[in-house]
Amino acid sequence: MKNNEIKLIFRGLKKNKIVLSINILGLAIGFAFVILAGRYVYTEMTFDHFHENHKTLYRVEWTTSDKFTSSTPNIMHSWLTSKIPEVKHVTRIINDAGGLMKRNIMYNNTKYNVNNPLIVDYDFFGMFSFKVLLGEIKSFENDKYSAALTRPFATKVFGADNPVGKTISYKGELFIVRAVLDEPPANSSVKFEMLLPIANIPSYATMDWQNNTLETFIQSHAGISPLALQQKIHDGIISEFNLLGYTEQAATRHFRLNPLDKIYYSDILYDNVCIHGNSRNTLMLLSLAILVLIIAMFNYTNAVLANATENMKGIGIRSVVGASRLRNIGYMICQSVLPCIIAMALAVFFTLSIENVTGQVLSIPLVKMRILHFMTIIGSTLLFGILVGIWPAVKLTSGKITDLLNERTKSGENTTGIGNVFSVAQFAASIVLIISVFSMYKQIDFVLKQSGKNMDEEFVVYMPLANRTEQKGGNIATIQEALKLLPEVKGVSTGLSLPGDEFYSNLRGLPLKYDEEERTVDVNHDMVDAGYPEVMGYKIKKGKSFDASLKLDYKSYLVNEAFIKKYGIHDISVAQLNGSPIIGVMQDFHYNSLHKEIEPLAIRYENSYQSRIVVKLAPPANGSFSEIIKKINKVVDSVDNTAVTDILFLDQHIAALYDKEIKMSKILFVLAFFSILISCMGLFSMSLFITEKRTKEIGIRKVNGAKISEVLVMLNKDFVKWVAIAFVIACPIAWYIMNKWLENFAYKTELSWWIFALTGLLALGIALLTVSWQSWKAATRNPVEVLRNE
Amino acid sequence: MIQLTNIDKYYDSKFQRTYVLKDIILEVKEGEFLSVMGPSGSGKSTLLNIIGLMDSPSSGKYLLDGNSVLDLKEKVRVDYHRNFISFIFQAYHLIEEMTVYENIETPLIYKGVKSHDRESMVADLLDRFNIVAKKDLFPQQLSGGQQQLVGIARAIISKPKLLLADEPTGNLHSTQGEMIMETLKELNNEGMTIIHVTHNEKFAQYGKRIIRLEDGNIRSDTNRKT
Ligand SMILES: Nc1ncnc2c1ncn2[C@@H]1O[C@H](COP(=O)(O)OP(=O)(O)O)[C@@H](O)[C@H]1O
Ligand SMILES: [Mg+2]
Fold it and tell me: What is the ipTM of this complex?
């Protein structure tokens, strides 16, 4: 394509400035979504590919018929090293802040929470490609008190200073920072802020084959068949089990090697070293983004068609003066490609500038853009423009030249016909999205209200104990006493877990004796101090709560109504759970999320396993807890500033159970907003096009006495019809999708008719507002002026 | 140069066949200046379009320069339009996004003429039609007569043998119309074959031969006495 033709295209585009900018903007939004989705999918699909050795790296896992776990015993490491020569490197990885544990480090008398401090073997560095930016990791081989920090964490602690060589305190011991590593990329399953040498392995990781407390990663020598290696490892361990007399385990366990780049999508429920993805979510986000692109594409196709019909004469003239058909097609395709390029440039700019929003607000991980990505983007833009432009180009140039010159063809009407279909499809999609968003909000609101029922979750804050296993009970008791002196504090206690902890409280096979009959039961199990039920606001329906002054109450149980019901207990005084009496029954509340029915819950008065201090606060006078939080912080730090990691709100902890849904509803909200925006843009340019074509008709009607209102009705009638059709199509689709989604919850709201009605009215209102602006202008124009111009 | 034998042109609708041209026999020699007259709807434009290879007859024979030009391949047709036939239209049909200069230059670009040669050829024509000062204006900024001059300049820049003009003066005041006809006459004097359609008796007299169409038939065919 020659320079001067591009110049011409630009001149032509300038003529339709308004419609064009609307379309470019709409297209840019669509492109932006697809770029984001593309990057997201790329991130998801390339998890852990950045490790140079990813093809020879595996995690050792094992399965039984009903269980699937990545936890392996400490002894696996030395066994693999000594018995399996095909294995080149082995590293153990323990998350030192796994489970309910929270950790912090001290530097300069300031406390910094550290996420995922991992304890690793020296081999770790040779296996994985986490980049060392500063210092060296050599000392990890033999110096227990070495630490490596990621750059963002190091910056948080040390600011601009060089961290290498500085001393930090962790769990009461002093470590020297030896290296600063790059932050693990977005597509890394293994996340950490600090690494420590394996010498720091906790004492609970014993050398027993039954003690599955850590994860084991191996790197095989090049050219080793993974299947053969897997078989060899499995056989070896099984014979080890047989030697030790673990016959049941030998018969049921199956050891396997999970390739590193498959780990992300593995179906593991609980894993505190690696994060996991959900391929259904990925697919869903991708299809939603493509939906927005399609909506934008409809607009653009409409515009290209309208533009092509407007330019029919020009194409005819070109043919007459000697342009070949191919040349005309090329010219028309360029007309559609150029705006696409502008839109794409805008889209790239958008996406780069909202990086923070996607990362932090919507928590969608995205890898950094690379040259390859830009090339893909440019390629797809060209392809998109060509695809949209090629049909009208081929079609228009296939006719006779005289038809083009006289504009006698029907293609002009065709375009608006297709336009109608597009508009209906766009509005239908937008309506589905809006109904979904409203219904999701309603359900989430219901869930959040319900989940706090029968407890005082909005007034409870909790403090995770730092370095729990090393805690010397004394400080915790002192802190509790000090807190009780604050007038705003209504109660203080400690417990092992909290409502909303989900995975950590499930206990199976607990012995229950009732009426001389003994069996085992599955329950949610918690161990707490005596004051805990009262602090949490659990309501006692039968019997009594724990009394700290009664020796007898120690190790006794409170159970919930679901427990009584499920296990058929009519008289708690003759029941014994886990060898202890049941002294009271609590009213049911949602210990876990509303995705599940309320399950049996048992809480035991035993304060030797504590992981959180819970504090009940008085309702604050000014509605804000921030003053009292500051006070609590001061009191705690004055006793022991390493004792707890944070002060957190219980209601937020519970709300986190619905993170996935809340995140999805936010994403849907954004998509719904933009899809309706783009649909309106399309409607707007459509109404511009139509009213322009009907200017003369309107003029004649007005000369013949039509009122403005009549003209308005005439012009808007069609648009109302389209929205109505779109609504009719959208309702059953939205109803089906939302019903499916609600099936995720055991407790749910009904789909409300008023949400559907409201959405319909909203769509209609927005559509009318959009087109009326144009219709009003056309209807109020002076007919004399219009007709004179003809 | 042009030999039409038994040319029919009709349109079929659901119930009937409407003839626009019926059994047209016409020969036009090189160097002729032919005026085509007739009431509106009599098929003048259709005839001109068929001659100009923009439309094809429903039946009949058409020899152009001795070659049959029915069912031409696209490539051959484009060749004729680049090198042999040019058009002038009642509505000028200039490309709105192009300046006067660019409009005139366009056929040369499609023909593949070198940019240096183009420049001098366009400059010559701008000179000849006295529109040098207007070369950077867009068509909308010109009067009708000036636009038609640009149309003629564009038509003749590729030095065609045959110039077809469909009511070139139809939208013009008579003085401007006369100027256009004078220009055509001049071109004919230089040897160009011209066929032009007009309603205007006076302008028709510029032609050396006049045919009158009525209901798709040639009613009369007269050579103007000089
Ligand atoms: N595509 C078409 N379909 C049907 N009728 C047509 C078509 N094109 C032209 N006509 C008819 O052919 C007749 C001749 O048209 P035309 O050659 O433009 O007449 P003139 O130029 O003499 O005014 C007109 O009656 C017109 O309606
Ligand atoms: Mg005509």
Answer: 0.90
